[in-house]
Amino acid sequence: MFPFPKIKNHFYKLKAMYNAVYALMNDGKVLAASVVKEGGAAATVAKMSFGNKIGFKFAKNLTNDELFAPLSGSLVVELADGAELDNSVLSYELGTTTDDGNITVNGTAISIDELIDEWTGKLEGVFPTKAACPQNQVEVPLYTERNTSSPVIKTAKPKVFIPVFPGTNCEIDTARAFVKAGADPKLLVVRNLTPNAIEETIEEMVRLINDSQMIMLPGGFSGGDEPDGSGKFIATTFRNPRVSEAVNNLLKNRDGLMLGICNGFQALIKLGLVPYGEIVDLKETDPTLTFNTVGRHISRMAYTRVTSVKSPWFSSVNAGDIFAVPISHGEGRFVANDDVLKALIANGQVATQYVDPNGNQASDIEYNPNGSICAIEGITSPDGRVLGKMGHSERKGDNLYFNVPFEKDQKIFESGVKYFK
């Protein structure tokens, strides 16, 4: 369906059309919709088809104007069976969706894959979508043994400390997820403009860590994400002797949990908290996170598999479960030498991996978007109580990702709270 204003330049007609489409949306009769821009209805339909590769067959005898004119203000609307627009809105049928993976115009079928390659290939040299991806050295088996230990001191509403560093931007989403899960998040804005502000921040960090059961390092662009420095500012702060002592006390003596996502994962690995479970001095042979093989920041959905349920953070899911999780990073490629890799696998510390839609360990850049070794997306400490991962599990909501396959909620935050009950 292709509605547009009946009388040119009549704003009230445009408003009537939008109201009619909005009413159909509220009734659940609009399956998809998009505005018409450059390239006209033909380009709009193509872009709508690209996402899930839903085919489309254009109705016959459409003119070039009907297909390619911008027609500003118009919409392409996919309606449910039996749904119709109000008669006051001028519209015509563009065609119907198909399941053949093609876009068909005047009897000529063009595959959606071919169209996508043509569309994206023009800028491949400037904005690359393809890059080398390491061949999987080994297939990482599922690790199904759970860590059944629990803290000596239980609490109905555990507190979680979330530091807000200059440049991080996921702390509010993270706090919201913890509140929904039943935790009590405590946010602290890290101030570093003066020596006195730094000292006050360190003192308050130590106090909040000592008063909390969990620490969460959020994602974003800490310290501007300067080259080879993602998470470095966070890690440097946590290496302060007083902060480091408080963290190690939480993990070693108080059975606490720690989580780091994206920038937070980068900080955890620079501290040694993953894979070692404590803050240590790093060696050249230790695993790290580095630049994506594609050479730029990536922001998209990724399919990930829970490979190990050793971590309490995954107590509410099963090994082998697949989730669709948003990713957004420039340095997310996990690298490790063979000896370290074998040790992580044997100990169940490979928590999550990038997979293809069939659940297979990803072996190409389409499904292993940063080129991580063995498609590793997240790892844990030896006992699983410290988890670092790249995917933004906190970016979840009731009305997000409707047209993306697989479950979205890994129940990480709920699992963290459950651990203390």
Question: How would you describe this protein?
Answer:
This protein is α/β, with parallel strands linked by helices and 421 residues long. It folds into two domains: 2-114, Phosphoribosyl-aminoimidazole Synthetase, Chain A, domain 2 (Alpha-Beta Complex); 159-418, Rossmann fold. It is built from twelve helices and 19 strands. The chain has helices at residues 11-26, 40-50, 64-68, 112-121, 171-181, 195-210, 232-238, 241-252, 263-271, 273-276, 338-346, 412-418; strands at residues 2-4, 30-35, 55-58, 75-79, 90-92, 95-98, 102-105, 108-111, 159-164, 184-189, 214-217, 257-261, 288-290, 298-306, 322-329, 333-335, 350-354, 376-380, 386-389. It has a nine-stranded mixed sheet with strand order 10-9-11-12-19-18-17-14-15, sandwiched between helices. The radius of gyration is 25 Å and the shape is elongated.
What is the topological layout?
Blueprint lengths: L1 E3 L6 H16 L3 E6 L4 H11 L4 E4 L5 H5 L6 E5 L10 E3 L2 E4 L3 E4 L2 E4 H10 L37 E6 L6 H11 L2 E6 L5 H16 L3 E4 L14 H7 L2 H12 L4 E5 L1 H9 L1 H4 L11 E3 L7 E9 L15 E8 L3 E3 L2 H9 L3 E5 L21 E5 L5 E4 L22 H7 L3
Parallel strand pairs: 3-7, 9-10, 9-11, 11-12, 12-19
Antiparallel strand pairs: 1-5, 2-4, 3-6, 7-8, 13-16, 14-15, 14-17, 17-18, 18-19
Give the strand tally: 19
* Named CATH topology of the largest domain: Rossmann fold
Q: Could you give the order of strands across the largest sheet?
A: 10-9-11-12-19-18-17-14-15
CATH superfamily of the largest domain: Class I glutamine amidotransferase (GATase) domain
CATH architecture of the largest domain: 3-Layer(aba) Sandwich
Sum up the overall morphology in one term. Answer: elongated
Low-confidence stretches: none
- Please state the average pLDDT score: 92
CATH class of the largest domain: Alpha Beta
Helix content: 25-40%
Radius of gyration: 25 Å
The number of distinct helices, counting runs of at least 4 residues, comes to 12
